[in-house]
Amino acid sequence: MHGCYCGYYGSETDSQRCTCSPGRIAHYRSRISGPMLDRIDLQLEVPRPKEWYQEQASISSAEMKKQVLEAQTVQEERYRELPLSWNSELSGSLLRKFCKMEPGAYKLLQQTVEVLGLSMRSYDRILKLSRTIADLSSAEQIGVEHMAEAIQYRKLDVKI
């Protein structure tokens, strides 16, 4: 969805600036209910590029595929004795058992929940996502960096 009514929220070009007030943006975003947003794991703002073609030093598709397959293998091994295969399927006590956090990661998540007033469903989504990010990094525990990245993927939880 667009970030606002005019469609230019977050645009950085002079010719395409958002003309919406903060209240109008908040009203536009409120059209999606909180319970619906809770069910969306990744909520990102994708800005318009300043230039349409840029050489970027980013990870190649082949390297990303390799990392994803490695993370899938880790998850399949972790859950081999259970009737599930992926972090996204975790709930309740299994979520708490397999999503062990470093103290700093736990503190960051708690502060985020309090400041943003997140629901327990959002809390669980962030926890599952941070577990997956940790798996991509081959980390046993969820660290602060994994938690911070997962929280960043919840853009629509942030009030305008």
UniProtKB/TrEMBL annotation:
Q: Which residues form the Mg chelatase-related protein C-terminal domain?
A: 60-154
> What are the record keywords, sorted?
ATP-binding, Nucleotide-binding
One Gene Ontology MF term: ATP binding
Magnesium chelatase ChlI-like catalytic domain ranges (all copies):
2-50
Where on the tree of life does the source sit, at the highest rank? Bacteria
Q: Which SUPFAM superfamilies match?
A: P-loop containing nucleoside triphosphate hydrolases
Give the protein name, as stated in the record.
Answer: ATP-binding protein
